[in-house]
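Quick note —
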Amino acid sequence: MLSSEFNRHGMLEGTTLSYSAMDLTGELPLPKGELEDSDDKDAELGPSSARTTAASVKLAVKIEPVALYPRRLEELSQCILQPRFPETLHHFLWEQLHPEASSSDIPV
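Predicted structure written out below.
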């Protein structure tokens, strides 16, 4: 399952509730790879670790039950009318797992 792959690589740790609790108590961890004592304030290392504001997300109403969506990636891409979805997901996962590599290093 895709969520277990994300978990295995540390991309989906905890729950929304646990994240919100850490945010409220000021215990949010720094993103992986971010330096805590960086003196170079002009260097862009990625997303800011600054405290975020409270926000909410309203999800769309389900039109079709999830069980009707195909489980295979190629079939899902056809179902959602996104033929490049497998390629795009492949690139996204490669960049997440190999942040130091350039986009030209992505295997096809």
